[in-house]
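ESCALATION

Customer reports they have been waiting on this structure for their group meeting. Please prioritize. Original submission:
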Amino acid sequence: MKHRKYWILVGILGAFAIIIHIFSSNSLRVEQYYSTWMYPYIAVFLRGLLGWLPFSLGDILYGMFGLWLLFRLVKSIRLLVKKQRLPSAMIRGMQRVLVLMLLIYIIFNVLWGINYNRKGIASQLGLSMNEYSLEEVKLLNNILLQKVNESSAVLLQNPPKVKSSGEIFRSSMDAYGALNQQYSFINYHPASIKTSLWGWLGNYVGFMGYYNPFTGEGQVNTTIPKFLQPYTNCHEIAHQLGYAKENEANFVGYLAAAASKDPSFHYSVYLDLFLYANRNLYQTDSASAKTFTKQLQPSVKQDLKDWWRFNNRHKNPVEPVIRWIYGKYLESNQQPSGVLSYDEVTGFLIAYYKKFGRL
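Update from on-call: job pushed to the front of the queue and completed.
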C-alpha cells in the first residue's frame, strides 16, 4: 500500500513535469506569459523575502542538502553491504529518488528555469541574430581592444580607491538603475546580490558567481581578483532578472556595466568581452587573435598574468570534471555549446553594433 501511494505521487508529479515541458516548447508563449508576466512577480517576491538577509540562505541550504545526500549515500551503502531488507529498501529508495528529482525539476522550472526557453534580450531589442563573418569578428576584436586600453588608461590616470565587495555590489545596483533609464523592461528592484559562502570552493571548481533559483539570490565569489568582480556582479544580476542563458546574461551584464559611470566597471566588462571575442577569433584565425592580444596595454597584460597565477594556484583534477558536468547541464537547457555558451555573447555584440553603431 505504501509503495502504491508513492507511485501515485510519482504519477502526479510526472504529469506536472510534462505540462511544464509542453508549455516551455513555445518560446513566444514563454516570453509573453512567463518571462515578462509571471516571473517578475516571483523574482520580486523572493528578493523581497530574502534579500534583506546579510548572508546567502541558499548557500546554507545547498550545504545542508549536500550533507543530507552524503548521509543517505552512506546509509544506502551500509544496507547494501549488510543486505538487510534489500529488495524493499531498493524499491523505496528508487521511489524517493524519483519523487525528489521530479520535485526539484518542477520547483526549479516554475521559479526560474522556464526562462531558458524564452525569446529573450535579442527579441526585446530587435536584434538580428544572423551568422557573422570573420571580418566582423576582427572588427569586434579591434573595437573591444580599444575599449579595454582606453578604460585601463582612465584608471591609471585617476586611480580609484580600492572598493570593498559591498561597495561593488552597490555600484552594480546603480549600473542597473542607469540601464533601467534606457530600457524600462530591465528593472532591478528590490536588489539583492550577496557574497558566496562557498567562494573558497569556487576557486577550485571554477565558478566566479551563480544564481540560486530556489531562493532568488545572486551570489558572487568575492575572493577572485577585484577587476573581475564588477562584470561578474552584472552577469549574476542578469540571471536574477530572468536571462537564464549564459550568452544572454553576459550581454545584459555588458549593457549594465557599460551604462555605469564607474570606469572600473567599463574596464571589467570590456576586458572580459575582449577575451570572449578573441577566443572566438582564435578558432578561425589564430594569427590575428594573437596580434590583437599583443596590442593590449602593459597594465592589462599584468592583470591577465595575475589572473592566470590566481587560477594556477587553485588548479586541481576535480575542476575539469565539474566543468564537464556543468557543460552537460547547459546543453540540457537550450545551450548546445555547453560551457562555450559564454563565448557566444560575441554574436549579440556584433548584432548590437550593427544596429546601434556603438559598443
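Sent to customer with the following note: The chain has two domains: 2-117, 121-356.
Escalation resolved.
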